[in-house]
Amino acid sequence: MLKVNNIKKSFDNNLILDGINLYVDKGEFVSILGVSGSGKTTIFNIIAGLIKPDGGNIYVNGKDITGKTGIIGYMQQNDLLLPWKNIYDNVTLPLTIKGEKKANARKIAGKYMPLFGLEGYGEKYPKELSGGMRQRAALLRTYLFSGEIMLLDEPFAKLDAITKRKLQNWLSGVVKKMNITTLLVTHDVEEAILLSDRIYIISDKPATIKREFTVSENAKNLGSAEFYELQKSILNTL
Questions:
Q1: pTM score of the predicted model
Q2: Is there a cis peptide before residue 126, judged by omega within 30 degrees of 0?
């Protein structure tokens, strides 16, 4: 589905990414885990086509999309909802930009509003929503952008612990139900284990893939022996 092949990137003669290789199969949830400033967001910016790599390629379903925008949905840490637009108009923005008529765009989004916990909130404005609800809206907008692949850059980092855990559990269910291919960037080991099928650990700059972990269903049970064993292995790798 998504393949990142030997990506290299430097800024001002400083090597940031040194041959990043990873893949995400259709419907799979994969996390990139590393310390802050290790180049995780740079990887996402390259996958999304916002910046070009110095070397390497990005493939979706075998097609080279390196440097091309508008193909993969990308949600950054901030929800970036437009304050002057209501939730309907915010989440349908990817559809209207691509030429969909407003009425039909709302009809399309309306099918997903209940699943994303937004039923009844379409006419409200971002300032009227809690942080968790704003993130749900941003996630729906990201999904409507592509419908196949979502890049999530620490989407819950600014939420309180209780809201964060609720949204993590909810997101896990939604991506499975809708078979969405998802790549998450995080520095939260617990979050990566809870959400992921696989986890890539990247080194500090210049970033390379240090190790790959497969997450069993038992390991996702926080407090289980499998969880603590995997957590320990990841922390030792970091």
A1: 0.91
A2: no
